[in-house]
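Hi Q.,

Before the meeting this afternoon, I wanted you to have the xanthosine-5'-monophosphate prediction in hand. No need to reply - just skim if you have a minute. The sequence and ligand are here:
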Amino acid sequence: MTVSTDIHFDRIVILDFGSQYTQLIARRVREANVYSEIHAFDIAPERLRAMAPRGIVLSGSPESVNAPAGYRAPDAVFELGVPVLGICYGMQSMAAQLGGEVETSDHREFGYAQVRARGHSRLLAGIEDEVNAEGHGLLDVWMSHGDRVCSLPPGFTRIASTDSAPIAGIADEERGFYGVQFHPEVTHTRQGARILRRFVHDICGCASDWTPEAIIDDCVARVCREVGDDAVLLALSGGVDSSVVAALLQRAIGDRLTCIFVDNGLLRLDEGDQVMSAFAGRLGVDVRRVDAGDQFLAALAGVSDPEEKRRRIGRTFIEIFEEQAAKLDGIRWLAQGTIYPDVIESAGATTGKAHVIKSHHNVGGLPERMHMRLVEPLRELFKDEVRAIGVELGLPPDLVHRHPFPGPGLGVRILGEVRRAYADVLRRADAIFTDELRTAGLYDSVNQAFAVYLPVRSVGVTGDQRRYEHVIAIRAVETVDFMTARWAHLPYAFLEHVSNRIINEISGVSRVVYDISGKPPATIEWE
Ligand code: XMP
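Predicted structure with the ligand bound:
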């Protein structure tokens, strides 16, 4: 008999005070092969105890510890007898809560800093970027704070300092409480991953149970327990999340999985055939393809408002999906590719803190209408973990590492009214841009890249011919979370080559422009 490990047993709980980096902390802990969960800082003490964490991390925050609201973690954090690491605000609030003092500094520190490690703490011992003449370790770190700790709580020593933050790290080694003013979770802190690994493995004593193979075994076992002998239906879009769900369910329940793939006529070039060959062909998954381009175009005729287009695409999808599902008998479960950031965001939405900028609905609303129960095998996973298990499950790497593609597809990349002829041109322009990115080895250096169809006319000249045709915009962005993004500084020679190819090879396009807008203020998609 094989004894299987509970991969959630060694868990780190991260209490979120609202920092933009909180999800990064959780991801770094997971990259150290340890399971982590994010919860609001004001979690009920009994819930925290019931989770039996092996360690707790307190996140940063845009707030001030000395503000009237003065957010604090529950006292239980410091009574559980497990190590605690406070990061930035997390360190300050821990210091204030345990009897130290925090002052608002007149010097805001934001950006790179060099921290001097002191006292050979367990957290930082032997971890350094350089050593100075006196033998002290120096760390290149990322700082972002105004307040600073000015007096240590009883039992604590100083373990790091900078000129502007003489107390840049604190520790009570006996109780296993640590704080750092800098952000070990961001990659600019070069030794950050090592510091977090030191905390979770050496200080909290967590094993390395959270690996792609173990995650797959755990997901498969859970799906089997959940659905028993029932059959499951999945809306396969060809995106990373639904693809990995398909591969995972295939492993868990084999031919009791049926997928419906709706080709809405707004997909990228050859995408429908690629999805079919990856799933129906290679993995032997039962995929029913529905070519519904005509229905979607009919629903979109004459509509130019972006949100109305999204609504119509969503509604048409549901109608077609329900029609297809009605042909299948006795399916009680609908699988969805919900991932952990969606779960965290909807938790945020229920507290009213999330602000909806665009309605991102794909298959929302389906399970209630269809009286089906939901199975969501990726609910605990971050996108990079989803990709890692996708590769492990045998999905084509190109598919797994594809840039995200919005549910409404080219429907929101053709500005204004969607027409078949526009979609055909856009698909070809998009394929040229993507192929060239791959050929130049640039595809993976950006996080999303695509073409947009602008139905405005511009004059051009080819040979002696005057052209008066439409415009293609190309956009490429670098982003970690898609909430903020920087336009990618692609080489001019590359852009020139892409532009020449698009104008020369596609009739109907007289001009190509490159989008140099960051998010904010511009969103990534144009609609
Ligand atoms: P924005 O344009 O809001 O995009 O900066 C952020 C990310 O979300 C994707 N996106 C969508 N995805 N349905 C989706 O499934 C949608 O309606 C939708 N709109 C935007 C966008 O591609 C980017 O990755």
